[in-house]
Amino acid sequence: MTGQSVGSRQKMIAQHQTSLSPEDILHSGNCGVVVERVGQLKPEFRSEGRMFARELAEYLNHRYAGIITVFLYEETFGTVDRIHWLMHLKSLESYETLVEMGVSDEGWRDIIMRNRIADERGGGTWERMFEVGSLTETVLIPQSFGMYGTAERTPDTVVGVDGETVERFMVPTAALQTTQDASVLLHSANCGIIMHRTGVLNYEFRAEGRQFARALAENWNVGLAGHATIFLYEEAFGLSDRIHWFIHLEKLSTYYNLMGFRARVDDAARELFTKQWIPQEKGGGGWERMFVTGSLQDMSLTPQHAGMNVTKAERT
Prior knowledge:
Shape: globular
Helix content: 10-25%
Number of strands: 10
Structural class: alpha+beta
Order of helices and strands: EHEEHHHEEEEHEEHHE
Distance between the termini: 20 Å
CATH topology of the largest domain: Alpha-Beta Plaits
CATH architecture of the largest domain: 2-Layer Sandwich
Largest sheet: 8 strands, antiparallel, barrel
Strand content: 15-25%
């Protein structure tokens, strides 16, 4: 601490990681794709690894502004030194632009190829910092009714595009899932904590499960406006019918507000949890029949900041 009291400490949010202006930032509310890249740092290179991750993110933020915004998160509770890049892309076309970096972007190549480990520690570039095989990616798209065959009729989001012979699905951004006012909307750039909840739906209840998941998210959005915002995402490539809630909390202690809201059980919430979402021709039942047993998991993520987890306080 540098003379600040605990109460006056600046709120640590991801948008403080970049010098981009807020209106130029892509985040979980306004992007078309989130790529979550996860890597396990070796303990001896925990500082160097974080500095590399932040430098790479900020280079991409400025070099490809409007195409991608990258924030670095850490697990609040979980595996020590496992870091999460949240890469927010305008669209899958944007990813194709980034693929070209490896052969055409000298600035990116310099960051990747630079020697970052001191000679007295054996020297080396970024690849020495991570455990072998630990880097994984999950591609997520904002959920929209009708995705993956969950609509009984062709949704309005299926449109023709000039010059294309096959219609395409236009994915709405996640902010359009909620009626929350923009002034109180929390997302991956301005929240204090992301609670990332995943669950695998039974295939036969894939449509009903998504309806429940969206209704639950909006119920919380209405009741917790200003404290939390919840978006629903889907895996574009990966495990079929695994859905992802991004529960953006103002701060860690907002979890108590979430608990209080759930414990209060108002009429709308009671309806959600007691409603027979599954039609009788499928055997009937509530939300608990929709998910594969044991598949619901929560992970808490904190925006990374210099000095976090006893790493170097200053970036070089």
